[in-house]
Specification:
single chain, alpha+beta, three-stranded antiparallel beta sheet, about 20% strand, globular
Length: about 90
């Protein structure tokens, strides 16, 4: 008997294959405080999480700051771009 293929969903009922991430890149003009405030306001990070992401970006050059479906991430990316952060959805 053939098994039916199950489609993997996450807890928000999004297809696992469709999960994307916003990647924040290091730049030479935004301050730590500005980046931290933006991550708290736009991505709903707590202050500790935002600080950790800011340090990772500073030392590693980039950091994944939010995961979800493309449709949920697009407005967050647009707001971060509006605030002059360098981000992409991957």
């Amino acid at each position: 008997m053939k098994k039916e293929k199950t489609i993997p969903f996450n807890k928000n009922r999004e297809l696992v294959e469709d999960i994307k991430k916003i990647v924040l890149y290091n730049d030479d003009f935004n301050t730590f405080d500005f980046v931290i405030d933006t991550l708290v306001e736009v991505c709903n990070h707590n202050v500790n999480q935002a600080e950790q992401c800011a340090f990772i970006v500073h030392y590693k050059g980039k950091c994944s700051v939010k995961r979800g479906s493309f449709n949920k991430l697009k407005p967050l990316k647009e707001e971060m771009l509006r605030r002059s952060l360098t981000v992409s959805i991957e």
